[in-house]
Amino acid sequence: MLKIWSMKQQQQQEQKEAAANGDGVVKKKVTAAQIRVQKDLTELSLPSTIKTQFPNPDDLLNFLVSIEPDEGMYQGGRFNFTFKINNNFPHEPPKVKCTQKIYHPNIDLEGNVCLNILREDWKPVLNLNAVLVGLQYLFLEPNASDPLNKDAALDLQRNRDGFKRNVRSSMAGGAVAGERFDNVLR
Amino acid sequence: MKVTIDKWIGVSTWHWNHAQDEVCGICRVAFDGTCPTCKYPGDDCPLIIGECKHAFHMHCLLKWLTTESSKGLCPMCRRRFKTATE
Predict the structure, then answer these.
(1) Partner-chain residue, chosen from B29, B39, B64, that has the shortest CB–CB distance to A91
(2) Is residue B45's pLDDT more than 80?
(3) What is annotated as the active site (chain A) (predicted)?
(4) How far is B25 from chain A (nearest CA, A)?
């Protein structure tokens, strides 16, 4: 451990000296998170149902994801998410939010997502591919035992067919139990 | 024929004696490379191997273990991480 600190100090010293010498060009440091994200992105192998989009190509840490399930009760919808990765990645998971208001047991009305690998089961050996595939899985198999939207979870648990109907109508922009949802049909 | 050697230059390579995986699962850089904070591979940026046989750059693993969410577990198998003692 001692060695790490002394190396860090040395590095800072070098940086200071470079600044003092007026080398001018302050090198923009590429962070560990950026390097790791870059690697994860080049290794992505996604099904055609998952698409990523980079509004700012220089910023790999913030991007958009859309998922278009081709089976299951959410088939025919397009679900959009924002991914925000902070500089502690991969020690902290990406922050994922759904930008639409949807009827789903594991996604609340604010768009917060309950997926184990984005929360308590995150570990740095997981990559973005695993997160994206896991996210898609929520639409194939909504999980009533670990809900964020308790009403939807109860609905799914009590009456699967009724829940399916509610999902369909919510996806078309309809209301479920007095709550109106966004139209997510493509 | 008599040969006289004026001079010779020795060249050598090295790699960690651990080939289980070729890259560190945390930073995804080769074991023979460095963790993202180091400049020089080798003794300056050593590997650490757990009782579970999973290996990482030591610095990567120590950083993970300082996070609260790690709960002291190996990032590969989620068993308690204990450094292997040979």
Answers:
(1) B64
(2) yes
(3) 114 (glycyl thioester intermediate)
(4) 5
Query: Looking at residue A8, what is its pLDDT?
Result: 64
Q: Considering CB atoms only, which of B26, B44, B62 is closest to A125?
A: B26
Is the pLDDT reported for residue A87 higher than 90? yes
Q: Is residue A88 assigned to a domain?
A: yes
Which residues of chain B have a CB within 8 Å of the CB of A8?
A: 37
Angle between helices A32-42 and A128-140 (to 10 degrees): 60
Report which of A98, A95, A119, A118 is spatially closest to residue A110, judged by C-alpha positions.
A98
Residue in chain B nearest A122 by alpha carbon: B69
Q: A139 near A69, Cβ under 8 Å?
A: yes
Three-state DSSP class for B70?
Answer: helix
Provide the CATH number for the domain around residue B19: 3.30.40.10
CATH code where residue A158 lies: 3.10.110.10
Which residues in A lie closer than 8 A to residue B28 (C-beta atoms)?
Answer: 36, 39-40, 127
What band does A17 get if pLDDT is binned at 50, 70 and 90?
low
Q: Please tell me the distance from the alpha carbon of residue A65 to that of residue A80, in angstroms, as a whole number.
A: 6
Q: Is residue A165 part of a domain?
A: yes
